[in-house]
Structures are given as structure tokens and as C-alpha cells.
Specification:
Layout lengths: L2 E6 L4 H11 L7 E8 L2 E8 L2 H9 L7 E7 L14 E2 L5 E6 L5 H10 L11 H12 L4 H9 L6 E7 L2 E10 L4 E4 L4 E4 L11 E4 L4 E5 L4 E5 L4 E2 L4 E2 L4 H4 L7 H7 L1 H10 L1 H6 L10 E6 L1 H18 L3 E5 H4 L10 E7 L5 H12 L3 E6 L5 H5 L2 E4 L12 H20 L5 H28 L1 H9 L4 E6 L4 H15 L2 E6 L16 E5 L6 H13 L3 E7 L3 H6 L2 E5 L7 H19 L18
Parallel strand pairs: 16-17, 16-18, 18-19, 19-20, 21-22, 21-23, 23-24, 24-25
Antiparallel strand pairs: 1-4, 1-10, 2-3, 2-4, 5-6, 6-7, 7-8, 8-12, 9-10, 9-11, 11-15, 12-13, 13-14
Helix pairs in contact: 4-5, 8-14, 8-15, 10-14, 10-17, 14-15, 16-20, 17-20
The structure holds fructose -6-phosphate.
Length: about 600
């Protein structure tokens, strides 16, 4: 997601901020900008695309400011272009704001501010913050008071930093649900979304907590709560190398992204209102759904079929986009197409979208990258809020796609009266519990390293079989895909009921069989499948709930996941399989984030 950097001190603030932004490039971004105060005047430079575009412009300005804030933007509201890039300013262009997060009530606030005469330049949610601060300063407040009053009106998440001409010796920053850290130097101080931005200058830091505000000058850092009461904070020393820190301390982006899933799913769920309430509300005039996607996104689509058919009672077909585009699908004006793509640039999925549109269908994109081609060509887009996914192997994009599909199914069911309010609330409540459950699971695994120990037993295997039924059958496919793409071990996923029709011939004492068997409607069937594997001396790694004693007795290894509503198990069962694949590839010493022959975005057929 977005990156924030700020500097105040004796050196050239412009250069320090640009270098800090480069250190945050790993977060992913589509535009960048810097604001600084030179000789009492606020100046802003912002450019879409790479930081070097911004640097090129900035280098033409020979001023040597001692205060600057900068930003790399990952678009959420408004296209990635120069105007929407941060920093954003108020009507007087004397206050500059950079922001990471989502202001959920920005439409309302913008309307209010426009009615009071404010002129907006961008389509971003962030710009409202600059105008809110402007109003408070006009009422006679100082910058810190004005920032606190402004953020009190915001709903959503923010890490924001503000500078202003009237108080050119300070950066004021605030945080709620988005990271912000302060770096402590001598006669200079830093702020950033993440430590690597300033790690080459200092490793002494103060982590801002939610609902805290900092006033940072060259020689001083004062922290307050949102009521303006002073807070004492501990200074921490970070023992990281730059290389480590860029991955937030994780060895690989894939591992980091696996651990980001609770937040990514939570963000996608909390973004749900914008899915259905924005302009161009999805028309409900359809009687069948066709899902098209590739790879991991296709597996999300297979699970989406269970969600939509079970909850909304509408027939769904799921196709590989590469097949769909050549099979002359039957489409009419009552067909809704859902195209799922993390990148929004996958060539086959795009071709499927174009074909469907040509035949008169409406297309909904489920996509993670704002402004990508598929979102531009689709009639509607449901954005996932996974943040940039850097590792080639998709993890958090997948689980956020599941969240979007589940929300879609519930919304359609509600509008078409396929479910009552009680069921709707029950389903949404269960979904909203998933991030917490996953977080607990991941924390426990971090402590016990149980999946890593299982991976150590199997990393020399030549083949692996993954079995699942019902809504976890696509998880068997996804688990096998994860293993093969990063560890190069041959793996196959099957619906467990198909085992007897062929794959059982493969099972011997060398074959790891990963069985996904939570306590759902097909649990007993899965227990029988495990018996069949064990009878042939296969090694069983079971993903199941605690207290499933039959499985625990039979399986060689049992990974316990939390309990949830049966349709939601894929959120919980896929994560151990992602970790299993990751640890195997790591034991084999492969470049996990950049597997051979694979690209993050497949823009060719
Ligand atoms: C697997 C993986 C790929 C992608 C596929 C579709 O880990 O990442 O299988 O899922 O290339 O990509 P998007 O979702 O960008 O269309």
C-alpha cells in the first residue's frame, strides 16, 4: 500500500525523502509526490509512474529545504495520475497532506466541504483532510489542534502527515489502522510508514499506536492522544539490516503476504459498502453467472460458485479464461460475467471479458489493482483490498477474492430475497470473524513452527497429492498449485471422491497426501478417504479442526484450524497449504518470490 516519508532537520529534506520513498518501493505504488517548505513557501511536486519521474522534476528545483513530506500512492479512490498523487493541498495551497488508508466517509465530507465553498482538485479521499484542516486553522487553531479536529471527523483508516506554511518548523502526523513510525536522529527526525525509509540514518524509533498524534520538529518529538493529552513513549532500537527490513522482517515477500491475510481480508470486508453503493450499482437483472479467471484466481472462482449457488440460488459456471475465449460460450443479456484477476492485466481474462461484452453480457471485475485494464473494460469493479502483492505466488489476493465473492453472494441473495435478514447477518458475522481466527492461527504457527516441521519431513518428495471435497475441493487444487509453482515438486489436486477413479494408483509409502477435512457435511467421507490412503501406506497430512479424533488417530500429521461456518472453511484451510508450500521451497533453497518461468502478471496469451 501507500508509503509515507517525512524529514525535518539540517540536511536537504528533498533528497532524504526521495531516498526514503525508494526504500518503500517494495510496498507497490503507481505515483509519487513530495511537498516541502522553502523560504516560507510550500512547494509540491507529484508524478504518476515511477519515483524516477518525480526525481527528474524535483532535480530541476535547486532549493535546499529542511522540511519535506513524501508519498508513494497505491490508488484506492481515483485513477493513478499526477493530480490524484499525494501530497494534497487545501484551497489556499498552504497546507499539504500525505495519507495512507481509506477515508470511508469521504463522499459525505466532500459534499459538506463543497457546499461550504471548498474547491477540490483530485478524486481522492485524502483531499478532504487538507480542506478540513484548512477550516480549523481559519477558526484560529494551531496546526496540531487543527489536525486533531480534522481527524475526529474521519471514519476509516489513516496514517497522515501534514506540513503547513504558517508553522514551517514541524511535521504533524496521526495514525489509526495504518502504520507510522518516527525515526530519531540528532538535530533531525524522520517519519515513515516503515523503518527502511530511514534505517540508513537511524535505528532508534518510536512506533505510533492507533489514535496517537506526533508533533515532530528537528530537535523534539512530542506524542499526544487524540484529545491532545501528552503521552510518554518508549524508544526502541531496531536490529534490522536494510535488506531484511524491506520485507518487514520476513525472509520473503510470500511469507510476509501470507501473514498479511487477516488484515487484507478485513480491509476487503470493510470496503464492502463501496462495492455496492457507489455509482453504477450492479444491476441484478441476471439469471446466471459465468466466472472467468486463470490460475489461483480461477480457484477462487470455483469457490465463488459454491458461495453464489448456495447463498443466492443462481446457477454459476466457472471457466478458465483461456478456454472460455475459444469455446463459443452461450451468453445472453441475462448472463452476468465475473472476471477475477489480481493484476487486472491477464491477457486471457481480458480476452474473455471482451468476448462476453461483445455478446451483450454485463461484466463485473473482481480485481486488486486500481485502474488496471480489466477494471477499465468491465462494467463494474469490486476491488479487493489486498494491497500490493509482490511475490509471484498469489496468497493474500486469493483470500481477498474469496471475501469479495462471499460479499457478492450475500448482497445478491439479499436483493433477490433469497435469504432473510437473520441469515444475512449470520453469514456476514461469520465472515467478519475470519480475520481474527486467521490471526490467531498464524500467531500460534509462528510460535510452534509446526507446519515448518512437517515441511522438513517432506521437502525431498517427488510428488504430492491433495484431496478435498465440497468447498475445499478447489483448495486441494490451490494447495497443489502453490507447491508446484514454488518448489517444482509435482503435485496434483483432486476432489477426494475421484480418488478411486485413478489417483489411488499413485499412493505408496513415499507419497504425501494432503487431506483437507474440516468438520463439514462431507467430513465422514473424508475420514473414509484417509482410511483408504493409510491402507496403502500413504503419508497423510490432514488439515482439520481440533477434536476431530478419528482423523488425529489416522493421520501422520494433523494441522488444526479454527471452526467456522462450513462455506467459509476455504479461508482457513488454504493458509496452512500456503505455508507448507512456502517452507518446502525455502528448505530447497529456491527463490520463493521469483519462481522460474513465472511472471506476476501474464499479459500474453
Ligand atoms: C499462482 C498465480 C497465478 C495467477 C494467474 C492469474 O500463484 O499467481 O496462477 O493467479 O496468473 O493472475 P491474475 O489474478 O493477476 O489474473
Amino acid at each position: 500500500m501507500c508509503g509515507i516519508v517525512g524529514y525535518i532537520g539540517k540536511d536537504n529534506a528533498k533528497n532524504i525523502v526521495i531516498n526514503g520513498l525508494k526504500r518503500l518501493e517494495y510496498r507497490g505504488y503507481d505515483s509519487a509526490g513530495v511537498a516541502f517548505i522553502d523560504s516560507g513557501k510550500l512547494k509540491i511536486y507529484k508524478k504518476s509512474g515511477k519515483i524516477r519521474n518525480l526525481e527528474f522534476e524535483l532535480n530541476k528545483d535547486l532549493s535546499l529545504p529542511h522540511i519535506a513530506i513524501g508519498h508513494t500512492r497505491w490508488a484506492t479512490h481515483g485513477e493513478p495520475n499526477d493530480i490524484n498523487a499525494h501530497p494534497h493541498v487545501d484551497c489556499t495551497a498552504k497546507i499539504a497532506v500525505v495519507h495512507n488508508g481509506i477515508v470511508e466517509n469521504f463522499t459525505e465530507l466532500r459534499k459538506l466541504l463543497e457546499n461550504r465553498g471548498h474547491k477540490f482538485k483530485s478524486q481522492t479521499d485524502t483531499e478532504v483532510i487538507a480542506h478540513l484542516i484548512e477550516e480549523e486553522i481559519q477558526k484560529g487553531k494551531n496546526l496540531q489542534e487543527a489536525v486533531l479536529s480534522a481527524v475526529a471527523k474521519l471514519k476509516g483508516s489513516y496514517a497522515a502527515a501534514v506540513i503547513c506554511e504558517s508553522e514551517p518548523d514541524k511535521i504533524v502526523c496521526v495514525r489509526k489502522d495504518s502504520p507510522l513510525v518516527i525515526g530519531i536522529g540528532e538535530g533531525e527526525n524522520f517519519i515513515a510508514s516503515d523503518v527502511p525509509a530511514f534505517l540508513s540514518y537511524t535505528n532508534k524509533v518510536i512506533f505510533l499506536n492507533d489514535n496517537e498524534c506526533a508533533v515532530v520538529t528537528a530537535d523534539n518529538i512530542k506524542i499526544f492522544d487524540l484529545n491532545g493529552n501528552k503521552i510518554e513513549k518508549a524508544i526502541k532500537e531496531i536490529p534490522w539490516s536494510i535488506a531484511q527490513a524491506e520485507k518487514g522482517g520476513y525472509k520473503h515477500f510470500m511469507l510476509k503476504e501470507i501473514h498479511e491475510q487477516p488484515k487484507a481480508i478485513g480491509d476487503t470486508i470493510s470496503g464492502k459498502m463501496s462495492i455496492f453503493k457507489k455509482d453504477g450499482k450492479i444491476s441484478m437483472d441476471f439469471d446466471k453467472v459465468q466466472i472467468v479467471a486463470c490460475g489461483t484466481s480461477f480457484h477462487a472462482g470455483l469457490i465463488g460458485k459454491f458461495f453464489i449457488e448456495s447463498i443466492s440460488q443462481i446457477p454459476v459456471s466457472v471457466d478458465y479464461a483461456s478456454e472460455y475465449r475459444y469455446r463459443n460460450p452461450i451468453i445472453d443479456n441475462k448472463t452476468l460475467i465475473i472476471a477475477i484477476s489480481q493484476s487486472g492485466e491477464t491477457a486471457d481474462t481480458l480476452a474473455a471479458v471482451r468476448l462476453a461484452k461483445k455478446k451483450g453480457a454485463k461484466v463485473v471485475a473482481i480485481c486488486n489493482v486500481i485502474g488496471s485494464t480489466i477494471t477499465r473494460e468491465a462494467d463494474y469493479t469490486i476491488y479487493t483490498h489486498a494491497g500490493p502483492e509482490i511475490s509471484v505466488a498469489s496468497t493474500k489476493a486469493f483470500t481477498t477474492q474469496l471475501a469479495a465473492l462471499f460479499l457478492f453472494a450475500v448482497e445478491v441473495a439479499k436483493v433477490r430475497k433469497a435469504i432473510n435478514e437473520e441469515t444475512e447477518n449470520k453469514l456476514l458475522n461469520e465472515l467478519s470473524e475470519i480475520p481474527k481466527k486467521l490471526k490467531t492461527f498464524l500467531e500460534l504457527e509462528k510460535e510452534r513452527k509446526f507446519i515448518r516441521k512437517i515441511a522438513l519431513e517432506f521437502y525431498n518428495s517427488k510428488d504430492a497429492l491433495y484431496l478435498g471435497r465440497f468447498v475445499n475441493y478447489p483448495i486441494a487444487l490451490e494447495g497443489a498449485l502453490k507447491l508446484k509453482e514454488i518448489s517444482y515438486i509435482h503435485a496434483e489436486g483432486y476432489p477426494a471422491g475421484e480418488m478411486k477413479h485413478g489417483p489411488i494408483a499413485l499412493i505408496d509409502e513415499k507419497m504425501p497426501v494432503v487431506v483437507i477435512a474440516p468438520k463439514d457435511r462431507v467430513y465422514e467421507k473424508m475420514v473414509s478417504n484417509i482410511e483408504e490412503v493409510k491402507a496403502r501406506k500413504g503419508k497423510v497430512i490432514a488439515v482439520t479442526n481440533a477434536n476431530c479424533s478419528e482423523i488425529e488417530k489416522l493421520a501422520d500429521f494433523t494441522i488444526e484450524i479454527p471452526i467456522t461456518e462450513e462455506l467459509l472453511y476455504p479461508f482457513l484451510t488454504v493458509v496452512p497449504l500456503q505455508l507448507f508450500a512456502y517452507h518446502i521451497a525455502d528448505f530447497l533453497g529456491y527463490d520463493v518470490d521469483q519462481p522460474r518461468n513465472l511472471a506476476k502478471s501474464v499479459t500474453v496469451e
